[in-house]
Specification:
Strand content: 25-35%
Number of domains: 5
Keywords: Angiogenesis, Cell adhesion, Cytoplasm, Disulfide bond, Repeat, Secreted, Signal, Sushi, Synapse
Structural class: alpha+beta
Subcellular location: Cell surface; Cytoplasm; Secreted; Synapse
Strand order of the largest sheet: 27-26-25-24-28-29
GO molecular function: signaling receptor binding
Main location: other
CATH superfamily of the largest domain: Glutaredoxin
Helix content: 10-25%
Organism: Poecilia formosa
Number of helices: 8
Number of strands: 29
Amino acid sequence: MPTNRCVAAAAAAFILFFFSAGATTDYDSYSDFIEEDDTPQLDYKDPNWCRSPHLPNGEVSCRSPRGGAHRGLLGTRCEMTCDRGYRLLGRKSIQCLANRLWSGSAYCRRVRCHVLPLIPQGRYSCTQGFFVDSRCEFTCRPGYRIEGEHSRTCLHRGSWSGVQPECSDTDPPKIRCPLSRLKVAEPGKLTARVSWDPPAATDTADKFLNVMLVDQQPGSEFKEGLHVIRYKVYDQARNRAACKFIVRVEVRRCPELPPPLHGYLICSSDGNNYGAECEYLCDGGYERKGMSSRVCQFNRSWSGGPAECVPMEFKFSVQTVGALLDQFYEKRRLLIMSAPNISDPDYQLQNIMIQKSDCGLDLRHVTVVELLGSPPRETGRIKENLLQSDVIEGLRQAFRISRFYFSMVLLDKLGIDRERFIVPVSSEELFSYIDSFLMEEEERERLELHRDFCD
């Protein structure tokens, strides 16, 4: 065996010298040859030909030509694997070469997931930082709730499980309304002005809240009865809360006043509420006796006592026209009818129509005065009541009424001459004029209520 090695070395030296003779070469090549001669010889019997491989945080699995536990024998092949949480960098498989070195190298680098971003209004904490199998738990600020998965785990591939959660504001704001309140309507009114302080609203997440009033504004007029006042509040996430309270407006009322017999009432406001005033008025042919009006007081009672409507009485024996007219002033209208004599055809026709319309004239507060003939047989009367001659003369002079032809003069409640007729007129024409030009609105309304009374 040594002899063969010497022969091989000599042959190799000869071949190298032969090929180098014709080239320009220095002696460094010879030195390289000497080093090559020191290259280890293949020896499958040497168990420690290559240093035993070592892989921190991993595992080396080798197959040796001699089998068994020989990990550094020439020709041994080793498979490299890393522990969980580590990634192999380098060769997956290496082999022990003749130069006593392995065919490659490898090492295990710890797998790391990227840093998780913070979520608005929340935070997270991890068991092992950002390495494999680390579990990061997400929590939210008070007033917010996790939407999505509550945790994420760093997987062995270096990625996180699941998706990033969000912190959603699901906690509704809190609002507290004022206490319910009772308010009495002011005198003569059916409403009351009610005020209150707006409610305060709070939220665990937002400082600025949108508080909305659903119903009437504070300080406005509220009608009689119950009113539910509602407030709503929204936070920036549109979570809603609401509250409500009651405003009650009370109208203090007196018992209903009965109208007088042969009369009626005209009342202000609602008729029987606190502060309302009711005036006693009488039908035609009647006048008021007693207080003209009564007021509903806070204690729910009426001031004064009730009035009566009694038949209207006039003194027809007065000596002057002024004394007569003063009795009718603001009470009755006068229709003065004059004719030369009782047999005058215009008078007779008009008298028939006047008698038929007597009820309608009474409803319109009209009294008929008749002046007939000439002195010394001249007469003046109101129904069956005769007037003094001085009064008759005073009426003719005051209103320029002739004795020589038929005429009628219509006076209003102030004694003013409003219309003259020189020919007979129908009751419809006379009533139309009175209704349109002499009656007040309240009288017309009253007339409509009692129009059927004369049918």
